Every structure is written in C-alpha cells, then in structure tokens.
Amino acid sequence: MKACGIGADDDSEYQIGPDAHASTPTAVRLAAAHTATAAAVGLAGIATIAVGTWAVVAQSGSAYNRLTFGSSIAVASLYLSMSAICAGVIMVLLPLVGLAASRRGTCRAGLTVGYMLVLAILWAVAIFTGVVMLQVGTGGVGRPATRALFVDAWTRSVERSPGTVCGVEAELKCRGFDGGDCATCPYEVPDATRGNCDVTRCASCEDAGTDLLGCYPALYDDLASKARPVGIVAVITAVAVGLDFFVFALARAASR
Question: Do residues 200 and 243 share a domain?
Fold first, then answer.
C-alpha cells in the first residue's frame, strides 16, 4: 500500500508548492503565493487564539457578565470565546494540510477537498462573527437588538438576584437601567406603595442614590469594548481565509 502524504506517489501528472517541479512560471508563482496565504491563515489563527483567550479572561470580570441573561444567551456567551480558541488552533494547523494537499501523494485529492471545505466553513463563521460583533460593538446604545437583550437581562436580574444588581450599580456608579427609572422609588416603604417607580428595573439597594445616570450606557460600553476586538480579528481572519481559498484553487488549476 502506498503511503499517504507528502512525498508519496500517485498517478497524477501535476505537483505544486515551493519544492514542486512546476511546468510553467505561473504555477510556480501561484505555489509561492499559496505558501504565503497559508502562512497568513496560520498567523490569523494565532491572533484568534490570543483574542479568544483575552475575551475569556476579560469577560469573567465584566459587570454585564453578572446579569441573568436568558439560557441561550448565557450558553452562547460561555462558549463563544472557547470556540474562538478552538478555531484558532485549527487555523494554525490547517496550513500544513494545505501544503500537503499541494504536493504529490496518494491522499492529495482527499486532502484538497477537506482543506477547501474547512476553509469555506471557517470563512463563513468568521464573516458571521465579524458582522455580528461589529454590529454590537459599533451600533451604540440605540441598537434595538442590543438594548432588548440588556433590558431582558436587567429585569431578570432585578427579579431573581437584586443583590447582584446593587453590586453592578455600586461598581458602575449608576442607578436603574435608564436614567430616571428609579428616581421616584422610596426604598423606606414596601414595594407595593412605590407609586410611579418602575419596580421591574429597580432593585432595593441600601443607600441607593436617585440622581445617578442609568446603568445601560456603562453596561453597553463594557460589552462593546470586548465585541470590537473580536469582530476586527474575525474580519481579518475572513480575509486571510478567503484569499487562501482563492489562491489555492488557482494554484491547483494552474498545475493541471
């Protein structure tokens, strides 16, 4: 049985890569270009691992991370950064597969299909992640989807863990979700007699102020500061992966 991988024989007539005996100057140039784009994918993978690790550490201490989000949001938030790290590891190793697929070997056809399929999946995921994260990170406090997400989390937290809300307010030096939400809350009387106070957004915090700004702008800024770097790295990754896919396909076509 023939070996599978670089250096193994097969029945194909073409071969590309830095060490290939290419028949045309175009094939040689494209082979060198693919080596460069594959290296770019590996570097993008290192950047993805770095930003994913940073996000894991930074998010763990974030004020918004203490709020009670819906279960699906909590799960997505928990695994997003870990998924970025895993994707980064794949991207660091993937160029080796691409270089193996560009040389002679009995498994070259399978490696080529697998390499291009993984590149396509990574590109789609990176584009989706980049668009979503940059929308969140640059959309501002007025973006409806982001605001709705935080309103839901804030009201859940007021209902289920008011002590956590008080801690967030003390840390961020704010009061209520929006400014003025809790200005009419007389905390010395029971909830039922609060009058116009919005009890769904105001926790009974000891020594709570009534003239502070709402917490949403600070919570949004906390989230945006983490979403923007992730989005930028995701876009860079999408460019690197897409370019490698395109150059690799051209190199394979030129070597036929």
Answer: no
Q: Which of 12, 38, 13, 16 is nearest to 25 (CA)?
A: 16
Q: Is residue 226 part of a domain?
A: no
pLDDT tens digit at each of 256 positions of the chain: 444 544 444 434 434 444 444 458 888 888 889 889 999 999 999 999 999 888 888 887 788 888 887 755 555 555 666 777 888 888 998 888 887 777 655 566 778 888 899 999 999 989 988 888 888 888 888 889 889 889 888 998 988 888 888 888 888 888 888 877 776 665 544 454 455 567 777 777 776 555 578 889 999 998 888 889 989 999 999 999 999 999 988 888 777 6
Examine the domain organization and report whether 157 and 248 are in the same domain. no
Would the pTM of this model clear 0.90, i.e. be above it? Answer: no
Give the span between the Cα atoms of 117 and 95, in whole angstroms. Answer: 13
Q: How many separate domains does the chain show?
A: 2
